[in-house]
Structure prediction request, 226 residues.
Amino acid sequence: GAVVSQHPSWVICKSGTSVKIECRSLDFQATTMFWYRQFPKQSLMLMATSNEGSKATYEQGVEKDKFLINHASLTLSTLTVTSAHPEDSSFYICSAGTSGSYEQYFGPGTRLTVT
Amino acid sequence: QKEVEQDPGPLSVPEGAIVSLNCTYSNSAFQYFMWYRQYSRKGPELLMYTYSSGNKEDGRFTAQVDKSSKYISLFIRDSQPSDSATYLCAMGKAAGNKLTFGGGTRVLVKP
Prediction:
């Protein structure tokens, strides 16, 4: 299957700072990328959908000014958590797909801890 | 009511047994169906996908879809301790669109 990477895999930051998470499709061109967050023992919660070269579409209740998403190329999307607070601590996972394809491939996730 | 319902488990089976997982859904607009496996603190791994009613087999895994009943299943034959994970069903309405996930079923295969 297709490979998606995320960096960093784990990050600790202080409250009030910003953190950037990268999502890369390594062996295919991802026209669409999705960002999820997952709390312990819970399912995935979709935060936003991003298409290459377009503004991201955020799910209801997700603050677009707090979670900045950029999908500048067909292999890279970034999620920036701005002015992070302890309640933003979570597991953030991206997935990637190509136009006309049903499959979505997930990255390994990034664990964010805000102190 | 959630669009996709999945029993959270845990489902505990002895090694070698058949694991039976299922999801129900309410939205007939869902056209394709996937099963993911997620180990603790890892990203989900795509196991199988299908977009038609019927059975699809891949190794030890068999996926079933019954669109008339809005019911999908995943069977794992000859289960191994390494199959212990959370299994997520997911559904989509069109290619490239977002997926709607079930809550996941935690499976434990005991040696």
The mean pLDDT of chain B is 94.
